[in-house]
Amino acid sequence: MQDGRTTITQFIIEEQRHIAEATGDFTSLLNDIVTACKVISNMVNHGALVGVLGAAGSENVQGEDQKKLDVISNDVFLKSNEWAGHLAAMASEEMEDIYHIPDLNPRGKYLLTFDPLDGSSNIDVNVSVGTIFSILRCKGDCENPTKEDFLQAGTEQVCAGYALYGPSTMMVITTGKGVNGFTLDQNIGEFILTHPDMTIPEETQEFAINASNGRFWEAPVKRYVDECLQGSEGPRGKDFNMRWIASMVAEVHRILTRGGIFMYPIDDKMKAKGLQGKLRLMYEANPMSFIIEQAGGMSTTGRERIMELQPSDLHQRVPVILGSKTEVERVTAYHNENKEADAA
Ligand code: AHG
Ligand code: MN
Ligand code: MN
Looking at the whole model, is its pTM more than 0.85? Predict the structure, then answer.
């Protein structure tokens, strides 16, 4: 831009210039995603004024009650991204099956997965929510993609990002060359680069976990949290602070800004229901892990690197432990020690 500010479009075009085989498809796809996020941001901002709050009266494939804005945001994402010919198909947390591009439209070489509204339990109480997305290459038959085409490890992601609808609307993206943050200038309708090269501080004194599940946690998680709570009198020798927003986007954004650790581990309550975790691998865990790793952090299930998991199902859930490297390493080490103790 002439005033010396860089828009997200300009940023992506400049980044793609260095890629010999880039056709402009990716830049254009990202532009459509950005537009969708601006539309959702506008609705979130207007809230009750435009009648978008409250329950939709339906359930998604995971048996969760849908909010009106879950359904509307999902629709906005589909409509913004189905027409331009960059995508072979889409998959969303809110839809049981993959979404085929309508026959009228051309098909492209990318696959898009998304959580249209993350943290939607916060929407009616006017607390931050977000959108999470991930772009994969369609490696099979791009004219007739199937669910299996989506089942790629997180390491295969071409791009991941989120929009945070908070006091200001931000977009944070990675294409595997670091993490950059953009703030929406509402007056001109453009995302402006405000947070170049975001990196997570290694040392932290802040943790985020839903402590109401405490009695169901596994021993390594109990140990870690207990040591944090003991503060300067315990083995960590320093006091910790705790946060829980119940919007993964907002938690990850805080961690990118000032460090910390976020945990949604597997627990006995989930195991009893046959669940492998709470958060979804394709729509939440993988994109956020890509961003966190690109910012110098770490992301595991407590046992394995999330990005290396081979997905077996579109709606697969996984335990998530991510954030500042030293803390995630510690929790992962506690899991490993526990495994050795169990085996002995
Ligand atoms: P979603 O609104 O897309 O279903 O995701 C909510 C997720 C995540 O963003 C958040 O960290 C977590 O669920 C909150 O779970 P609890 O309500 O169990 O705390
Ligand atoms: Mn979510
Ligand atoms: Mn959601």
Answer: yes
